[in-house]
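Exam revision sheet. Question 4 asks you to relate a sequence to its structure. Input first:
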Amino acid sequence: MSGTPIIDFIRRYKESGTVRAHMPAHKGAAYIGPEALDITEIAGADELYGAEGIIKASEENAAALFETGRTLYSCEGSSLSIRAMLYLALLEAKRAGREASAETGRFRVLAGRNAHKTLMTAAALLDLDISWLPAEESSLLRCKTDIRALDELLAGENEREKPIAVYITSPDYLGNIENIRSVAAVCHWHGVPLLVDNAHGTYLKFLEMSMHPIDLGADMCCDSAHKTLPCLTGAAYLHIHRAAPSVFAEQAEAALALFASTSPSYLIMQSLDNANALLTGGYAEKIREYAASVRETSERLSAKDWRLIGDEPLKLSFMPKEAGYTGAEFAAELRLQGIEPEFADPDFCVLMLSPENGKTDLKAIENAVLSLEKRPPISEKPPSLPAPDRAVSFREAILSPQDRVPAEKALGRVLGFGHIACPPAVPIVTAGERIGEAAVECFRYYGVGELSVLREPRG
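Answer key, structure tokens:
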């Protein structure tokens, strides 16, 4: 099979002149451009989540690149893969004879609180509880795992009621990377699988020394290919370690299919197929070279007293308050010079880069930052995050009737279908938690205007 089996099949089909008496209804007519390459599961096109032909061959190419036991495609981002990982961990726990909590009747995941909101919605769908990992340090965008405390926590767990998985996010949105090797060692010592949301770190596999979670011991991880590889939005992977419990690989397609659309995008699959060819044809070297260029830019900006943080090689994460700008003000200044950041809040401004930016963009960013006049430092610090009490389960909170209320009037209410905040960040409050005064103060600081809260009984 060729290096791009999905692309090759669809190009042949496009050129065949076959009458498209099948979906989609555009029939290949170029209304916006790519329609001729947009097909459905016709004869020979294989079936995502039941792959036996060209998709299976392409996924095997990806598994060889990432050196995994199995790699599967998602056309619905890492969110789909996160749901599948939790489902697979639940299956394995039941197979291994684990039991739900005697107190709640639910299985439990031990997770870093800086998780994408998909973790919470998946917990609701699967009726799981989440306990938060002990952290060495925690802020809205960071939750560094306290490895010694994790070891002690797992050692003290009832053997039959241990969590079905430990779940961490690395890299986080600012580019901080967890000590995955040590976390994995602790998890495996206690017989608990490690799941990693590596949405921002697909390219970490292709650095001089791999920093990819699978290489560092994670049992499963998700990668959002579109975030750091030249792929279409929605392109993602589910990776499974060779040594992971066998049910993970055996049931992976069923797990993805449980939550996925039955109309996957062949355009997205082609972009994943193309990534395999790129990475075997020199793109990995481009990643390494560009990471070095980003590091040099970061060093020059740091030498001019611009504060940058994070370990991730393809992010520039600024803390501009020391130069007199909030993150939002800093982002606005960059936009005036034709640069659109990935993210900004009162404290940070994050730029996500890839080799496609090239050195010209890097120079433009450097010039734009250095052109800004330094101001007196801003001393205001973010408020401390609350430690909210859980009132009801994720499932009950998300599936109950709700009202929208101003954040300033939410004191004492229980958060419903919501997760403050997203991107992957330590939430101020998660679904089912009660909103206290500290949370309201945080809402004010971060500009949260309205919330969904559980509807109070009438009368």
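Marking note for examiners. The CA atoms of residues 68 and 248 lie 12 Å apart.
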